[in-house]
Structures are given as structure tokens and as C-alpha cells.
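Please go through this protein, sequence plus C-alpha cells, and consider how the sequence yields the C-alpha cells. Keep your notes short.
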Amino acid sequence: MCRISGIIDKKRSIDQIEREVKGMCDIMAHGGPDGEGFYTNASEGIVIGHRRLALIDLSPCGHQPMKYQAGEFIISFNGEIFNYQELKQELQNLGFLFDTESDTEVILVAYVAWGIASFAKLKGMFAFYLYDSNLKCSYLVRDQSGIKPLYYRATAQNLVFSSEVKAFTKTCYSYSEQPDWKIYFLAFGHIPEPYSTFNEVLMLAKGHYLEWQHQSDTFEIKNYVQLRQIERISDKEAAKLAVEQNLRASVKRHLLSDAKIGVFLSGGIDSSIVTLLADEVMNQNLSTLNTISINFEETAYSEKVFQDTVTEKINSKHSEYTITQAIFLEHFPAALKAIDQPTADGVNSWFINYFAKENGLKAVLSGIGADELFGGYPSFTRMGLVKQLKKLPKLILKKSLIFKKSAFKRFYYLSYQNTVGEYLFLRGIFTPDEISALLNCTIEKVDGVLKNVNIAPVPNYLDNGERASWLECNLYMQNQLLKDTDSMSMQHGVEVRVPFLDQDLLDTLKSIKPKLKFKTDRPKSLLIDAFSSILPTAVWDRKKMGFTFPFQLWLTKDEQFLTSIRTGGNQSATKIVDTFRQGNLHWSKVMLLYQVFKN
């Protein structure tokens, strides 16, 4: 896990470009505390930067940008390749030699051997730049699940890229505010890909690569994902076995590290399974697992009893931290400052990883992805309702804005009759009338923006469970959970790994019939049944809590935060803040207002 950046521009002074790329790396130094490196090719106007977080091959041999074959091929890589050892063996059998023990070199050699076809062979989380001097071509490549971010600005004359949006401000290029980002943000609680707060800066789509031709200064964006033939699994026992075997293998791969690694144990189903499997792997290696848990004095938010149930079953070095209101208020300003792109829910990730760093961990395994893939959210039981409501005339759906309760007001979004409308009905924060009042624009303006968001439509052939999973994976997890987790973990130089998003496991889940994955009688029943032999009943046979902070209690008393929301006389915004002070509004809404009205 690292931070990467670069500029390609033949028409500018190479010295000036070098200074700017250095500035881009400096502002992202938190994500690469173990060193920095640069590559310059003056004739092609290329300057590439890298900030290193060393996890595999901690020696200087793992330094980046990395060269291969006397500099014919160059890479700057952020992430981990979890099947690099298998690929390395395959390449060695083909006669290729290696100088390091790093997964970075495997990407380079794989490209030399197989060209762009190598991208689809990589299993892991990654975003990288690769230069081929023979073809006079550069590539930006992002993993198939979009775990690692890769932002870019591309014109007919130059290319700029980075792991974080804030790094673009260190270049001399002009950037204009994305005119609709506040509408996106107030509706979604995040800015959906491919957008950012800058009109010129976009996120490279997952499973895609950008190809830059240096001779013509032109670029294309292409999909590299290869469709695989999948044998359908319709038997319950076969499905359980397939999930168990693939997740077990995934956790083992995700524990590969030459630096201190651990597991975040919340006490929920997902992190408990990951912890139990990781303990098995570490015991086989005659090592002790590091686990870390966060708790609160407010017992309604604490899952300590379930954490203890798991730790009693394993041989781990367990570290437990209690976040009090005083600790939260002390560090909350730093967490807010760390936000790269506006988000309703990234602060908790900042705190989790703060304590992981305090514990000396450089990588942590997380349970992200399980709810989206196995049916852990309320949306999985609501898709039937969505279908029925969408049959109502648009005029009736639009009348729902007369309601006071947000859940009813969100019926309005279904009048859009598209993917965005379905998602916002399920997870929207503010409704169009509220957004128009906050931004002093018309409801028609809000509707026009949201109806035309550049988001792929959910496939019509999916059944209710698969449809909910598609929405949760491609919108909520993609744009909020993964983006927040990467941004906030890297603020502390900690890598978060997500074994539920292992490519082999994802392929397996696609092969399992939906009725086996998404039973409505019990959320995540397939996952629970697959690990019933090791997962304590007390962990899963209870009401889902989710990992949340007592924001509602703490923020209502944080006047410094509330007074920093400069509403500028906007009556709607002022009323929202006052309502929150009285304890009658969810904290997520004031978090959004803070980021929209803070300046």
C-alpha cells in the first residue's frame, strides 16, 4: 500500500514538473511513511512519484518507482497482489528472472510476458502506473473491485494522476469546481464515481486501464476484465463448501506480509469469521494473531461481549481501546481535516486506524463486503416493495414530498424510474426539496442533475436479492465504504485488506443461485451456515448492530463543530442544525452540512 502520482507533459519544463510531482507526494506522505522515489524521462515529459508503505520485501530492493530490463519498463504501484507468488512461479517456469521478493516486480515481469493481458491475471487490490518505453505507451490500471483509488486529469496534451484528489492542487494546471458535486453529496452522502469535487478530475473505473500514447499524446480507456465460464451451484451443501473453502483461502492470502499485520474485530459476524480463520492460519504458521477492537463507554454501542466471545476461542495478542467522548472531541478536528473527498461516514475509519497505528500494525484485515455480498442490509428485504412502488404513477410518487418523515419523502426518488432513484429511495440522505432549499436552486434543477448521474444501470435480469447486492456493491460500498476506508486508513500509514472481495470468492458467489445466498428469513444465512462449526451462536443469533460511534450523543454537545457550519443565513440549514442540537435529527445530516457550508 502506497501513494502514487505523476505528470506527463512534453511542453513544460521538466524541472517544474519534478517540483510539482514532489509536492504531490509530499501532501500524501502520510500514506507512504517509509520512503519516496521518483522517475523522470525528460524526452517524453514524464515524472512519476511514489510514497512507500513497505509491507512485502521491506528491503531497499522494493523501492519504487521500480525499473525492469535496464529501465525499459517502469512501475509505480499502490496496493497488494495476493496471487503474486503463483504468478512468479509461472513466470520463472517461462524463464524469467527476478531480483526482488516483491509483488511489484511480478507485475512488471507479468506485463513483459503477457502484455496488457497480464492485468486480468492480477488478483488483489491495486492501482498502478506502468511505462513501456518500447511501445512508447503508459498505462494507468485499477483493480476489478475498485478497492484502490486512482484519480486522473487527461487532456489532449497532458495527463496527471494521483491516489488522492488534494494532490492535484499542487500542480499548475487549472481546476474548476464540479458544478453539481453538492447536489450529489447531499443526496448520496458521497460523491459517486467517476466524479470528484473538481470538474477536470475523474476516478478511473474499476477493472479498467487508461492507455496513453506518447507519440500522439492521446488516450483511451478500456475494460480489461475477462468473462469467465462459471458452473452454477444450486445445491446448498455445495454452496456452503465453496464459500468456506474460498474465504478460508482468501484470508490466508490476505495475511501475507513482512510487516506487522492484524485483524479488526468488531464483534459482528463478518469480522468474527475473518478473525477465526486468520487464527487458524497463524496457528499453522506457529505465529500469534494480532487482533484489535474498539469500544465505547456507552454500552448501547459496545459489542465487547461478542468480541470477548471470539477472543476466548483463539490464541491472539488482543488489543482493546475505549473511545470516550473526550478522546473523540480531541481528535475529531484532525479526522475532519483528513477527509479527501466529501463523505457522510469516514470519521469512524479514521479512529479505527489511529488505534491500529498506535498498536504498531501496518496492515489490518476487515470484514467489508460481506453485508453487500450475502444480504446483510435491510435493502435485501425491500426490493419487492421497490418494484411495487415503482408501478405507481410518477405524479403520486412525487406527492410524497408532503410527508414529514424522511423514509416516506424518499418515495419521490422512485419517480426517476432508474438505478439512481432506487438507490436513493433506499439510502438517500436529503430529498430533492431539502436539497433545493439548502442550495437555493429549484427542485427541477436537482432532479435534472440526479436523473443524469453517470452511473451504469442495474441489470434488469437480476432478481430481488441480486439487485440489492448490485446496488450495495456498486454504489454504497464502492463510493463510500472503500473510498473512506482507503482515505482514512492511509492517513495513518495503515493498509486495510478486504478478504471478502477476493476475486476467486467473488467468482464463486456469482455461480451460486440467488435463492441460496439471499434467504429472507435470516440475513447472511449462507455465510453463517458455511462457518457454523467455528462461529459462536452468540455472535450471529442477535440483532445486527453495525459498527457505529455514539455520534448522536457526542456531536450535539460539540459547539465548536456546530458553530463551524456557516449557514450564511440559509434558513433551512440553520433549522437543521438547531433540530440536531435538540437531538431530533440523525448526525449524518449535519456532517453533510459541515462539508457543504464550512467555508
The chain has a mean pLDDT of 94. The longest helix spans residues 464-490. Residues 325 and 554 are 6 Å apart (CA to CA).
